[in-house]
Amino acid sequence: MSTHGTTAAPAARKRTPLATRLARAASGGLVRVFLLVVAVFWLVPTAGLLLSSLREPEDLAESGWWTVLTEPAQLTVDSYSRLLDNASITESLWNTVLIAVPTTVLVVVIGSLAGYAFAWLEFPGRDWWFLGVVGLLVVPVQVALLPIARLFGDVGLFGSVAGVVLFHVGFGLPFAVFLLRNFFAEIPRELLEAARLDGAGELRLFTRVVMPLGGPAIASLGIFQFLWVWNDMLVALIFTDASNQPITVALQTQVRQFGNNVDILAPGAFISMVIPLAVFFAFQRQFVSGVMAGAVK
Fold first, then answer.
1. Which of 73, 75, 146, 286 has the fewest C-beta atoms under 10 angstroms from its C-beta?
2. Could you give the C-alpha distances from 159 to 20, 95, 154, 168, 177, in angstroms and in order?
3. pLDDT tens-digit profile of 124-155?
4. What is the value of pTM for the model shown?
């Protein structure tokens, strides 16, 4: 009886998945303290930028942002008032929204349709087409900047918001199709066949069955795409002009022209950073669900 019990215990430990054992090890108190310290250090630049944006230029020139902790009277919102009076910054924020939101929507919609087609529809050369999409993942953005700039110049899109949106959509779709195709392919075939037997067409099957099941993956893709486009400066710097530049290019222009106007740069940089952070934290549950669903599959 005792021999059987001793042999059963190691077998039970062997059957425990590696991910489960790692999760148990990572739940210790020492690991939590370490992660808390890392999180604090990661948030220090953000807190410093926020406090700098709430100080007057004279205070910024005399001392560091940490002096606010002992002299809270330095805090003021005058810098944000001046920021709202700066037409180039406010217009650039709106331009960033006009670039990031349509790009994210187009990539998610087109990527979802293409991912469903590659996963569940039969058409000639499907595997070869998907292989071509996967091959596009390794194409660096820098290689296509000059050729596409010339193409956009010939068709009248260079220097416009539409040109930037099309560029981001083109380079965002390969990853979107690859991600969603692999996620949709894991949906049980029996579930789709049951919906077809009930009379559902492909469009209804896509909108009523596939899209709800793929919600976490689609939300994760949307967050990634929005953050990438919002924080982009290289593409916007090349494909936009002074009338429709996003916030990243506008702040870079302010630094080049007026290197000491920290009262405009600090609040502008904080707003540029806090909006994508707010989007991420607002959809973090869907993001974590998508990542965990992909890990389980």
1. 73
2. 52, 12, 12, 14, 28
3. 888 899 999 888 888 888 888 889 989 998 99
4. 0.77
